[in-house]
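Pasting as-is:
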Amino acid sequence: MAGKYELKQTDKGQFHFNLKAGNGQVIMSSGMFASRTDAEGAIGLARKHSSDDGRFERKTSSKGEAYFVLTGPDGKMLGRSEMYASVSAMENGVASVVKNGPDAATVEVGT
C-alpha cells in the first residue's frame, strides 16, 4: 500500500495534513492552515522537498527525544515528526518520508 497525505478540515475551519506510510502510520504532521489552498500548497512543497535531505532539520526536544522538521524553500515548517526514543528511530522516520512523500496521493478525510 502506498503512502498518502490525509487532508482534514477542523471544526474551526482550518486545515492540516498528515503524511501516512503505506502501513497507515503517521510519519509527519503539518501545522494549521487558514485555507484548503494553503494546505494543498504545503502538500505540494512537501512532495517536492521530501526527497531532499538538506530540508530535514534533525532536532532534540527538551526531554531528550529526537524528532525532525521538513522545511520549505523559505525555511518554514512543512511538517514535523512524532517524538522518537532514539536518533536511529528518527532517521527511519526521515527515510519513510523520503520514500513516501514525493509520490503520495492526497486524500481528504472527515473531521
